[in-house]
Amino acid sequence: MADNDRHEGRTPPQAPARPPRPGLRERKKTKTREAIREAAFALIADQGYEATTIEQIAGRAEVSPSTVSRYFPAKEDIVLGDGYDRPLLAELSTRPADEPWPASVRHVLRTAVGRALAEQPDLTALRARLMLEVPAVRSRMLESMAAVGRVLGETVAARTGLEADGLEVRVCTAALTAGLLETTRYWAEHGHGDDLTALVDRTLDVFEHGLPAPARPAGPAGNPPVGTTPA
Question: Is the dihedral of CA 114, 119, 121, 126 positive or negative?
Answer without folding.
Answer: negative
